[in-house]
Amino acid sequence: MTPTGTLPAPDRIPADALRDVVDGRWADVRRETRDQLATAGVLADPDASSEEYRARITEALKILTASGRPHSGFAPSVGGRGDVGGVVTAFAMLAYGDLSLLVKAGVQWGLFGGAVQVLGTEGHHERYLRRIVDGELLGCFAMTETGHGSDVQHLHTTATYDRASGEFVVHTPYPQARKEYIGNAARDGRMAVVFAQLVTDAGTHGVHAFLVPIRDSDGNPAAGVTIGDDGRKAGLNGVDNGRLSFERVRIPRENLLNRFADVAEDGTYSSPIENETARFFTMLGTLVRGRISVAGGAGGATQKALALAVRFGERRRQFSNPSTGEEIAVLDYLAHQRKLLPALATTFALHFTQESLVSRMHDIQAPGAAPVGAREQRTLEQSAAGIKAIATWHATRTIQTCREACGGAGYLEENLLPALKADTDVFTTFEGDNTVLLQLLAKELLSDYGRTIRRGNPLQIAPLLGRQLAGVLSERTGLASATRRLPLRGLDLSDRERRRALMRVRRDDTLAAAIRSLAPAMRTGNDEFTVFNANQDLLLTSARAHVDTLVEESFTAALSRIDDDGVRSLLERVYDLHVLDVIDRERAWYLETGRLTAAESRSIRPLVNELCGELQPYARTLVDAFGIPENLLACPMLDDEAWAPAPGSPAEPVTDQVETG
């Protein structure tokens, strides 16, 4: 392996120093949130009826409001502190408790309040935002329709301006256009941010956001509003998801959230962004906080699942050691280590990536932040889309692995893993379907390539064109091995720089391959949709490679900031395991392209096994570094009394002796 610092014994790793590294920029927020979670009853209750559960979560929302934590992410003018990064960090930690509360809070302050904050203007802020922040006005984020989920640009709900009355008329033209799966709609919401096609006498101007009251002061549906209940779900049953339909509901002209476009009294439409598509994506880009928050929540749930599984793996013993006769802890088995430790390594990698992403978002969005260029904003949006997809897929896969690693105990509700599994399943779908998000990222990467070519900077263009030429030559001559392995020759696979090079070359080459395959779409007369559709697999591969490299770079940056030698040595090995696991997962690509020889490919398995064995004694130290409050991990399968050693030889069950007379 790459030379690294000496790894101290597990009990010599300074717990506070490791926790400080994990806590990062918002360590104070994490400490405060831990203290709050440690005294709150915020665990899921799967036995409660839907109404009981929803009522309990609504009460918990009030307690959360009283803590002042939700306020911190908003501007001081509405009672906040402008700590955008801090509130997203605290939000993610709610995943240690009841994920229904996390989602309910996300809908209220992240989606509903966030939309009013970033899409509205001063009048909306003065009239609504303080009440939203204080929890007095509960609301919804009504974007998805029964017939249109991912294709938001072509929603069918309409908001037609009536010049005679100075009002918008919000209408659901047919059942497929009803708003669907809307959090806070079935029970508690009083107002919704409704996304609809804005129509004036001059025509349709694309999707815009409108504030629409959905209930009166008594809690009854507002005139023209039909509210349905989505009922029981696979999880998150403390959240009141519902359906909304509008029958020519009239709202004041001022209820258009008009940061990016407005309609004058005479019906004249205006926008500082002339292109409808550009305006639409600018509007959606301001909502990036939701995707970052979902990725953080998925990370918190994954950390909890691993903490449960690692602790169980230390306690659970199966089969005897022939040398000693003692039963062996399941975490001592390599197969069990291979289940949990690479997943734990990737969880750390994604945690540091999330920290970096939250910091960038805070520096761009916090009140008083210096303006940034379009490129910086685009990069944030790209990263948020990619990390949301990868983090939530990782959560789904890892929580299932942890459930299996805990055997039958992991299947019991009382041991917490089933609720984690059920509640996080939908994370791969809401705030953007993961596959669609990766396609969006890939298209943005292609656009970046096009912008680079158009700018004509030789220093940027030369590597891109060189990569394209190498790809064409290798495809036409079959010299892939010779042309592609040359830059990496002479570097040992166990060397960190070699592994970094392998990550980056996959990112660059997969994008280059996608560009070559999509070139026909740019030619006159070709069907652009057909060409793109036929190459979706390449687009998704390039997007995944881009995110993998982003995660590796974020982990590397985090390592460079660690002062404590022991902590750095431990996390360097965690980094090594994560990167090798990614290369192992993508071995087919590396072999097909000649980036790895067969012998190098075979060397990965023993390297991973070696790292698993080296990190096994530190598994508990690593999961404890997340700082999950003990009351949120307490469950029967981790009860110390239940794991008291059995009398006698473990290989021979104790039997009662029966006297015979």
From TrEMBL:
Its cofactor is FAD. Its main location: other. One of its GO terms (molecular function) is fatty acid binding. It is found in: Peroxisome. Residues 509-634 form the Acyl-CoA oxidase C-terminal domain. GO terms for biological process: fatty acid beta-oxidation using acyl-CoA oxidase; lipid homeostasis. Residues 285-446 form the Acyl-CoA oxidase C-alpha1 domain. Residues 140-249 form the Acyl-CoA oxidase/dehydrogenase middle domain. It is an enzyme of class 1 (oxidoreductase). Its EC number is 1.3.3.6. InterPro entries: ACOX_C_alpha1, Acyl-CoA_Oxase/DH_mid-dom, Acyl-CoA_Oxase/DH_mid-dom_sf, Acyl-CoA_oxidase, Acyl-CoA_oxidase_C, AcylCo_DH-like_C, AcylCoA_DH/oxidase_NM_dom_sf. Gene3D superfamilies: Butyryl-CoA Dehydrogenase, subunit A, domain 2, Butyryl-CoA Dehydrogenase, subunit A, domain 3. The keyword Cytoplasm does not apply. Keywords: FAD, Fatty acid metabolism, Flavoprotein, Lipid metabolism, Oxidoreductase, Peroxisome. Belongs to the acyl-CoA oxidase family. This is acyl-CoA oxidase. It comes from Pseudonocardia autotrophica.
